[in-house]
Amino acid sequence: MIKFIPLINILILILFSFIILITKKEKNVKLMSFASNIITFLLSILLLTRVLLEDFIVLNLGKNNSLLGIQFYIGSSEAVISLTFTFVMLMILWFSNSSVKKEVSEIRISFFYILINILLASLLGVIYSNDLFNSYVFIEVSTLSACGLIILKDKKENIKATVKYLIMSTIGSGLVLMAIAYIYSITGHLNITNINEVIVSSYQSHQNAVLIILGLFTVGLGIKSAVFPLHSWLPDAHSSAPTPASAALSALVIKVYVFMLIKILFRMFTYEIVNSFIIMDIILLLGSMGMIFGSIMAIFQKELKRMIAYSSVAQMGYIVFGIGLGTISGTAIATYHIIGHAVTKSSLFLISGLMIEKTSSKKIEDLKGIGREMPITLGLFTLGAFSMVGIPILPGFISKWYLSLACIEVGRVPLILIILASSLLNVLYYFPIIINGFFGNENLDGKIYKSKKIELSRLIPIFFLVLSIILVGAFSSKLINLF
Amino acid sequence: MEIFTENYFETGAIILFGIGFVTLMLHSNLIKKIIGMNIMDTAIFLFFISKGYVTNKEAPIVVDITKNPDSYINPVPSALMLTGIVVAVTTTAFALALTIKLYKHYNTIDLEKILEMREES
């Protein structure tokens, strides 16, 4: 029975989204969405406990062999990531309960919950699936539902951002499908495990084809996960979406594609094959560039949400950097950073949504002195920002620390300078908000202590997210050993 | 040269893919971009289906169950591409709907002009 949890997770979410479609009352819509997400969250916990006992679970759907049927493979990293994602999505839903109607018009609220459900289902599908074509279908579903979430707020810039996102990601999925076609033509399989068996024995006779496949996958999934030079759609899309949606997009959606890239590079091909091609150096270069330029561009942003969106580009750089090292420890850090960043970025986006709502201004300069007005909110923001910058114990520091260790392991010590530079740049754009927020004096006239305080009930989901940031940091060594 | 004429399916598919890709990337008109997207997808379908094709074999539609399974082509790519076509149609429909909305708000479907508009405002 536990074996079927991955399937049940996806089916419950999709089933409930159809029920929401025919539900009229807003209260029932929220209840259904929340219920389905709680079920998936609890089932993911169960799945993780089972995976910890058995190392991995393989679920064959359709035919009972991997040649024809679709296969789900859940190792420990998949189980942990799916638990994190369901948790973050649950908190986002909780938060959206009180805030979604402020940004989305009345008639569209049920669409928000439908799309969130379908989005989470497709994301879990990409994570669990061990079948390339099945992953492709889930990727397309997730892209379309993410586009839907952005366009929910019916404004001019939302439509533009969605068009940009849709066009970029169709290029990406076209390249991914082409790569799948190539791989099918040289191996005759779509199952990652089977492809691995064939390709290990015969990759030497298909050197060029393997290079093309690696390139297509890297660029295709790179566009979708906003790896540095291909990120142009991200700031518009993530900053214009409704706050809960941008939290989901930035924390979860872009991570899934990069996780699929990890699966393809290291499980389908192996470390040995991948490292014999130039592609890993290119990935490493893209990652380093993302870390530096993403941060630099974030410094120049004037809007809070745009700045956090650019920070996502920089953080994706860390993940890609970890992949580009091409070692087991590098991949483990990349996976860890996926989790750490998912909890951190979602809380930052939710908090920034609250601050924008209360000050009714998107600009960073209007946030001066906000610590006086909403001290708890900015305090939580500070913790999230500390994690991004890399203050010890918090996940951001741990990823940076282990990334540096992984660099030393492969003998590429100069790369540590890039990590350091990126951390310092992070300080440059996160700390001014905090310092001006708490101590900015020039803007304090007429501001009353706790005058814009948020009701505690709205802060609870953010409390949980911040708590999970600390937990992810505190149990880092256990987590990293799992991957 | 021979390698191109022998594998004319793949050659055609890659040429079509290139045409679609360039149209999608370089044209600023949204409708043309969507057309390019469709050409690109169709090229992949052609490429994929040609992988399952075996000369002188039938389409995998079983009418006569006593027939030898070897007389059919590989059905897997065709089945996959059926799904692929559904995905492409959905994306196209969504993109076209977006284009209508974009036109209502901006009065143009030229993406470059729309991107310039933001800098002015």
Molecular structure report:
The complex is a heterodimer of chains A (483) and B (121). With 483 residues, chain A is mainly alpha-helical. Chain A has a domain of 206 residues. In chain A, 77% of the residues lie in helices and 2% in strands. Chain A has 20 helices and two strands. In chain A, strands 1-2 form a two-stranded antiparallel ribbon. The longest helix of chain A is centred in the middle third of the chain and has 32 residues. Chain A is globular. In chain A, 60% of the residues are buried. With 121 residues, chain B is an all-alpha fold. Chain B has one domain: Orthogonal Bundle (Helix Hairpins), CATH 1.10.287.3510. In chain B, 74% of the residues lie in helices and 0% in strands. Chain B is built from five helices and no strands. In chain B, α2 packs antiparallel against α3 and α3 runs antiparallel to α4. Chain B starts with a helix and ends with a helix.
For the structure shown, list the relevant keywords.
heterodimer, A: 483 residues, mainly alpha, two-stranded antiparallel ribbon, 20 helices, globular, B: Helix Hairpins, 74% helix, elongated
Quick gist of this model?
The complex is a heterodimer of chains A (483) and B (121). Chain A contains 20 helices and two strands.
The pLDDT mean of chain A sits at 87
Question: What fold name goes in the CATH topology slot of chain B?
Answer: Helix Hairpins
Assembly state here?
heterodimer
How many DSSP-defined strands of chain B? 0
Helix coverage percent of chain A: over 70%
Uncertain residue ranges of chain B: none
**Overall spatial form of chain A:** globular
- For the residues shown, what is the average pLDDT of chain B? 85
Largest sheet geometry of chain A? 2 strands, antiparallel
Q: Element order, helices and strands of chain A?
A: HHEEHHHHHHHHHHHHHHHHHH
Low-confidence segments of chain A: none
Strand content of chain B: under 5%
Pair with the biggest interface? A-B, 26 and 34 residues
Proper CATH architecture of chain B:
Orthogonal Bundle
Structural class of the helices, strands and pairings of chain B? mainly alpha
Report the principal-axis shape of chain B: elongated
Count of discrete structural domains of chain B: 1
Task: Return Rg of chain A in Å.
Answer: 22 Å
CATH class of chain B: Mainly Alpha
